[in-house]
Amino acid sequence: MPNTPETPRSFVKPDDEAMIVCPACDAARAISAAQFRHRLHLIKVKCKCGHVYKVHLEFRRNARKNTELEGIYDLIPPAIGGGKIKIMNLSLNGACFEVRGIHDMKVGQRGSLVFTLDNRKETVLFKKVIIKTVSGNRIGAEFIEDRAYEKELGFYLLP
Length: 159
Fold this sequence. Notes:
Layout (H helix, E strand, L loop, with lengths): L8 E3 L5 E5 L6 E5 L9 E5 L5 E7 L6 E11 L6 E9 L3 E6 L10 E7 L7 E12 L2 E6 L6 H8 L2
Parallel strand pairs: 1-5
Antiparallel strand pairs: 2-3, 4-5, 6-7, 6-9, 7-8, 8-11, 9-10, 10-11
């Protein structure tokens, strides 16, 4: 079951409940997603109207928005490094970005990201981060500072 852009998403609440809505008849129902938490995130559902569809269960704390924002990163000593990046996706809690060229980033290192949102105000954000994942030139980072700019980022992330 491939996940496509048309696949509906359902965000799973901390109590493992997800609300799913049938795309054919708009019937909504709550399901328990606990059994899918550590394995299957794309499930097949049959509605009472008879329509069969797929739903992607999203276990993240916050929704992510795909982006292509240019920015820069800088690692905090004792780590060294910095350079241009492209923010691939963004949430209230973190960002996934791609580094251009060679880097030596490791999980647990701290740094900062500076990037401009492509909103009307062209809001410039400065975020302190901790590196959570490194996969080639793709880096996953969690925001670790206070909630400065949360309002601007929150509005930007609205669907």
